[in-house]
Amino acid sequence: MAVVIAVLDDDPAARKQAERLLSREKDERLKKGEVIYYDSYGSEEALLPYFMKYDLFLIDVTSAARDGMMVAVDLLKKNPEGRIVLCYDKIDYRAKYGDEEGISFLPKPLWQKDFAGLIDGVIAGHSSRKPRIELRGDKDTLYVTDDELLYAVPMKYYVAVALSGDRSFHAMTDMASFYSHLDPEEFMVISGNRVLNMGKVVSCSGRSFKMSDGAVIRFGFLEKKAIIKRYAEYAERKKK
């Protein structure tokens, strides 16, 4: 079990204190087989490209034009997977703005027991979350679920990934690394080292699959028997 935490605080001293306490909690959790990762940020802009990977956000921004509540509300609109907690001392966010659904409040200073309680809550809710796959591009990073991946084609320097909602992404990786993050019960490798999500196949005819976005993916004659058998086994499993 791993928990990934983001600390967003524009006070360097507060960030350092959070890092010290999280380091201690990390060591304690490791004894029980629980792994804690954490990153600290001094600005909203630094955090946003990576927000989908976090299970917990600890936020306090007081010296910028946009304070912690503004940052938290905008983050909430992006539908993050993680829980958002506003930590406060200089600005009492609840007194200033009132309660906001989806955002918790915790007064500073924070103690190690506060981190322990927050992490316990994240672990308790972890089983209901869909795992996400990190796709790194030249400039952007996406965090997507298996269900959003339709198929992928290896190119010279990247993997071209087709996503639901008529989206596409150039992942700066190779196909072996890309496929290692996928569920082999849901994804299949076919000729040309391409990968497809069997759950997104609309129909199978001859030596081709028609995908949910209308794309037709063909495969070789010599592979046909093995590929059709693999897909038939998948379809049968889904009926049960």
Commentary on this structure:
- The chain has 240 residues and is of the alpha/beta class.
- Helices cover 31% and strands 31% of the residues.
- The protein has seven helices and 15 strands.
- The chain has helices at residues 12-30, 44-47, 68-77, 93-97, 112-125, 175-180, 224-239; strands spanning 2-9, 35-41, 56-60, 83-88, 103-107, 133-136, 141-144, 149-154, 159-163, 167-171, 187-190, 194-197, 201-205, 208-211, 216-218.
- It has a five-stranded parallel β-sheet with strand order 2-1-3-4-5, sandwiched between helices. Strands 10-9-8-12-11 form a five-stranded antiparallel β-sheet. A three-stranded antiparallel β-sheet has the order 13-14-15, with no helix packed on it.
- It is elongated, with a radius of gyration of 22 Å.
